[in-house]
Specification:
By secondary structure, the chain is α+β, with helices and mostly antiparallel strands. It is about 40% helix and about 15% strand. The longest helix is centred in the last third of the chain and has 44 residues. About 20% of the residues are buried.
Length: about 260
């Protein structure tokens, strides 16, 4: 409450967001440090200034490697440069579940710009942890607001700056924001370690299956008994039985007639 008073922000508590007593609910437009900004559309050109692709959005983060070389130079790209702590939101998608998804730039990037398919959000780190914004933005509480406002044109769902500015966000005390981010990162690291262990186990299982089958076909699963009937004799007996079988069926058919 004191933080909001310092900012001159009037808290709002819509019924769909229930927060602890020490938290507040505010609109994004009241917390941003700069106006929201769309990127710029540029064609591809070998040797041009790099620009991110929409595919850079990756599970709440921005993959800075997802880029192309654009048909512009550094001076034209300057207003659209990406920096650490920037948060980007997808403007459109053919899936309602993906439109408005956001990703955070967690590292200091080399010079790269962002495209018109993304909206840039910058918040003051002294009041809102950008990492917490990334966690909250992709939560169900925010998704319900975005999906309820998204508009579809020719099968593409879209959101705009006005819709984003009106999104209600839970705002914990700053110290608690840090604890939340730290704990979530700790738990996610554990989950990722479990996923890696499962993937490694599946790979070992597949390799073991191949080894067992190979050993089976090479006769290495059980001790070999030299007194056993050779397989060639077994095959010869099977062929003889098959050769005799049609004659027996023919005799039965003649008797029945």
């Amino acid at each position: 409450t004191k933080l909001l008073a310092d900012l001159g922000i009037e808290p709002t508590s819509p019924p769909e967001l229930e927060v602890p007593a020490t938290w507040e609910v505010v609109r994004l437009c009241d917390l941003r440090s700069e106006p929201l900004a769309n990127g710029r559309s540029v064609r591809s050109r070998a040797g041009g200034f790099p620009v991110l692709r929409l595919t850079c959005l990756d599970d709440g983060r921005i993959d800075l490697g997802e880029r192309k070389e654009g048909e512009w130079d550094a001076s034209a790209a300057a207003p659209f440069l990406v920096r650490k702590g920037d948060f980007f939101v997808s403007r459109g998608n053919g899936s309602l579940d993906l439109v408005g998804r956001g990703g955070l730039v967690v590292d200091h990037p080399d010079p790269v710009a962002y495209p018109d398919t993304l909206i840039r959000v910058r918040v003051p780190g002294e009041y809102l942890e950008p990492a917490l914004l990334a966690l909250v933005w992709n939560s169900r509480a925010v998704r319900q607001q975005l999906e309820g406002q998204a508009r579809t044109t020719a099968g593409i769902y879209k959101v705009n700056q006005g819709m984003l500015n009106d999104v209600r966000l839970p705002l914990p005390p700053l110290e608690e924001q840090t604890r939340i981010v730290t704990e979530v990162e700790r738990q996610m690291s554990f989950v990722e370690a479990c996923e890696r262990a499962v993937e490694a186990g599946l790979e070992r299982s597949a390799a073991l299956r191949r080894s067992v089958l190979k050993a089976a076909f090479e006769g290495q699963l059980v001790p070999q008994d030299p007194t056993d009937e050779p397989a060639s004799v077994l095959l010869e007996r099977i062929r003889a039985q098959r050769a005799a079988a049609p004659k027996a069926r023919a005799r039965r058919a003649k008797a029945n007639s």
